[in-house]
Amino acid sequence: MTPRTIVVLTGAGLSAESGIPTFRAADGLWERHRIEDVATPEAFHRDPDLVLRFYDMRRAAAAAAQPNAAHHALARLSRRPGVTLITQNVDALLDRAGAQDVIHMHGRIDGALCAACGHRWPAPPTLPRTLPCPACGAGAARPDIVWFGEMPYHMDRIEAALDQADLFAAIGTSGQVYPAAGFVDVARMVGAATVELNLEPTAPGRFDEVLTGPASRIVPAWVDSLTAS
Ligand code: NAD
Ligand code: APR
């Protein structure tokens, strides 16, 4: 019987086969850039041009990438009532695959944010520090990305969805970073079934079910199994 409410959390592994490096693999993003240099508010204050160049590079990589079969399968699933898609990724590939109402808890690389007034607008391919805000005119543009030390976005919507979950799935995330890493525990507390889809199990015993393999293969099969029953 198909669960009534399904909450899906995705991480960098969902986009790995689209050519976007994950964070903590051998060739991961955090092997080439120190988090403290490019992904914290202090880094932006200390050297805004370095941080802006880092995100310009990630914006170009995301724009050049194509959604893979896993993104398309989750886009199909998102059109079912009772499905909430949460992503830690900032690449917007789920949206480009046609997924509806994706919750971007770490923001979007294709978005710009005015640090002065909070206005958001689509980011140009390269985001200069002095780009005037379309709303208030201040030259305080930053990537609309959640940095370490900042609160993730939309936690109220995420907590409301988890409270009602019958099934929670974590796809392509190492479960290293909170609060996302704790979502499975919240789901278990409300009695949801839990499943992990990943190249390999990240936390044996933490999920009721673990499906291993590349997302582009196992995610479409999993979605088909949900919509068939
Ligand atoms: P956190 O647990 O993610 O990080 C705590 C501190 O530890 C951070 O200040 C960071 O410097 C460090 N840290 C965390 N994980 C690390 C890792 N795997 N390797 C090395 N250092 C690590 O909690 P937080 O600081 O409250 O982060 C807030 C949110 O910002 C988190 O959800 C995080 O995932 C998010 N974030 C997003 C991006 C992005 O590029 N989208 C980058 C960094 C953080
Ligand atoms: N198919 C399925 N899973 C995969 C694939 C693939 N093709 N390739 C990699 N994975 C899995 C890895 O096994 C790993 O568990 O994806 C996970 C990637 O983990 P991380 O690199 O840690 O990425 P993520 O979990 O998304 O990081 C969480 O940390 O730095 C912050 O904000 C940043 O959103 C990021 C957060």
TrEMBL record:
It is an enzyme of class 2 (transferase). One of its GO terms (molecular function) is protein-succinyllysine desuccinylase activity. Pfam families: SIR2. Residues 1-229 form the Deacetylase sirtuin-type domain. It catalyses: N(6)-succinyl-L-lysyl-[protein] + NAD(+) + H2O = 2''-O-succinyl-ADP-D-ribose + nicotinamide + L-lysyl-[protein]; N(6)-acetyl-L-lysyl-[protein] + NAD(+) + H2O = 2''-O-acetyl-ADP-D-ribose + nicotinamide + L-lysyl-[protein]. Binds 1 zinc ion per subunit. NAD-dependent lysine deacetylase and desuccinylase that specifically removes acetyl and succinyl groups on target proteins. Modulates the activities of several proteins which are inactive in their acylated form. Belongs to the sirtuin family. Class III subfamily. This is NAD-dependent protein deacylase. It comes from Paracoccus sphaerophysae. The lineage of its organism: Bacteria, Pseudomonadati, Pseudomonadota, Alphaproteobacteria, Rhodobacterales.
